[in-house]
Amino acid sequence: MLDFDVQRCTRRCFATERELRAGETFYSVLVSEGANVVRRDYASDAWPGPPEKALGWWKSVYVDAAANRLHWAPNDVMLSYFEGLEGNATAADARYVLALLLVRRRVLRVERTESDDAGLETLVLFNPRSEVEYRVSAEVPSEDRVQAIQNDLAQLLQTGNGATAS
């Protein structure tokens, strides 16, 4: 079996050199050029069929990844929502997930983890920008809640087409 890297879509028709449009059908082919394997993309109206010595070819639809990409709300909006969940026992698991997201985005940092006598963990987080410390119960969501939390956070904190939440 041969191993080789396949290039990403060039987003341009090899034959006409025009840019492919979102939603457009196109063909890709892998050909050998000396010791290299090269990918060529063709608009469907310029596709001559696979070359005689093609290693492989396929048909696809060009999707402009940037057009439908979801963007997270600004950090301040996320932090404000996180702060608003404090004391809401029914959203403790969502607050924990959001806290982890804010740590990942480097808005908050984990200072330490504390455990009480019952073994329940609390994350102590610090916001270096405002110099505020937060305490978050490590409420790992149940399997049933994971999808609900993801959907809720996505609806509240993500927007499409490059716009930001307000």
Question: What is the ordering of alpha helices and beta strands?
Answer: EEEEHHEEEHE
Low-confidence stretches: 161-166
How many β-strands, per DSSP? 8
Sheet with most strands: 3 strands, antiparallel
Terminal Cα separation, in Å? Answer: 52 Å
As for the number of domains, it is 2
Q: In one word, what is the shape?
A: elongated
Q: Tell me, rounded to a whole number, the average pLDDT.
A: 87
Q: What fraction of the residues are assigned to beta strands by DSSP?
A: 25-35%
What fraction, in percent, of the residue positions are helical? 10-25%
Provide the structure class: alpha+beta
Radius of gyration: 24 Å
Order the strands across the largest sheet as they lie in space.
2-1-3
Can you count the helices? 3
Task: Give a short synopsis of this structure.
The protein starts with 24 loop residues before the first strand and ends in a 6-residue tail after the last strand. Helix 1 runs antiparallel to helix 2 (92-104).
Account of the protein in words:
With 166 residues, the protein is of the alpha+beta class. It has 2 domains: 1-68, no CATH class; 70-160, no CATH class. It is 23% helix and 30% strand. The protein has helices spanning 75-84, 92-104, 143-157; strands spanning 25-33, 36-43, 56-61, 70-72, 109-115, 121-127, 132-137, 158-160. It starts with 24 loop residues before the first strand and ends in a 6-residue tail after the last strand. Residues 161-166 have low confidence and may be disordered.
